[in-house]
Specification:
Structural class: alpha/beta
Shape: elongated
Distance between the termini: 51 Å
Helix content: 25-40%
Number of helices: 8
Radius of gyration: 22 Å
Mean pLDDT: 91
Strand content: 15-25%
Number of strands: 9
């Protein structure tokens, strides 16, 4: 039984206790009932977490009163969760965009969803994550497009495309996490050539090599300054996204390699 709540001091969470009592009244006390918590702290619940729940049930002695979705390093109730699972049919395209608050990334992605929804027959879905002080802070946009209805009610965990609009994020966040084999990575950076190779973290380069990732880079900051957009790189990077992914037909992009 999964409860999306935590009741410290109780024998278990509400739904778990209700089911236990109902079975007891029916004389079915011998049935094994295992309880756990999920989605605590507004965390997403993903297919990999649900798989961990079933793997726990398959054990000779399943862990009771477990937690899934967070790292419980105090009472050690967390279940081990494996690699995320790519869900959906072959037409499903998933993308993540790492941006800086007020750089226009979130606004551009909202426009992208509208453009694709208005000009194609694809189903669209978008989630956006950022804190209350969005300006100057970390933002992440999660987009899905497909030919079939999209039922995923969680953030993108296995993207086909990742765009990192701030080169410093390469050292601050795991921006390649979950990027599918043969996927695409777009980096906005001032580095070029040997300097780019030198400054990319080794773990990022290893991930690119191991998973056969197609890598593109663009100096959108320089282009924005040249054409009078200041620090608003969103339109340039949006064009690069459409050019690289070919979600919809676009004209030849500029400056993306």
């Amino acid at each position: 039984m999964l409860d999306r709540t935590k009741e410290p001091g109780a024998n278990g969470e509400p739904l778990y206790l209700d089911v236990k009592d109902a079975l007891d009244e029916l004389g079915l006390k011998d049935l094994l009932v295992v309880g756990g918590r999920y989605g605590l702290g507004s965390n997403d619940t993903t297919p990999a977490q649900m798989l961990a729940v079933f793997e726990n049930l398959a054990l000779p002695e399943p862990k009771n009163h477990f937690t899934v979705g967070i790292n419980d390093d105090i009472t050690f109730t967390s279940l081990p969760v494996g690699e995320e699972i790519a869900m959906g049919d072959a037409s499903l395209f998933q993308a993540k965009f790492y941006g800086l608050g007020a750089d226009g990334t979130v606004g551009a992605n909202k426009n992208s969803v509208k453009i694709i929804g208005d000009t194609t027959d694809k189903y669209c879905q978008a989630y956006f994550s950022y804190d209350s002080k969005k300006s100057g802070g970390f933002t992440c946009s999660h987009l899905r497009f497909g030919d079939e209805p999209i039922h995923s009610t969680y953030l993108v965990t296995t993207p086909n495309f990742v765009a990192c609009h701030v080169q410093a994020y390469l050292h601050m966040y795991d921006v390649t996490r979950g990027l599918q084999d043969g996927g695409t990575f777009l980096l906005n950076t001032i580095w070029e050539g040997d300097e780019l190779v030198k400054n990319l973290p080794n773990k990022v380069k290893k991930y690119f090599a191991d998973h056969k990732i197609k890598v593109y880079y663009i100096n959108a900051t320089k282009i924005a300054q040249e054409i009078g957009l200041g620090n608003r790189t969103n339109t340039i990077l949006q064009s690069a996204f459409f050019r690289i992914t070919a979600v919809i037909p676009v004209e030849e992009g500029r400056g993306c390699r």
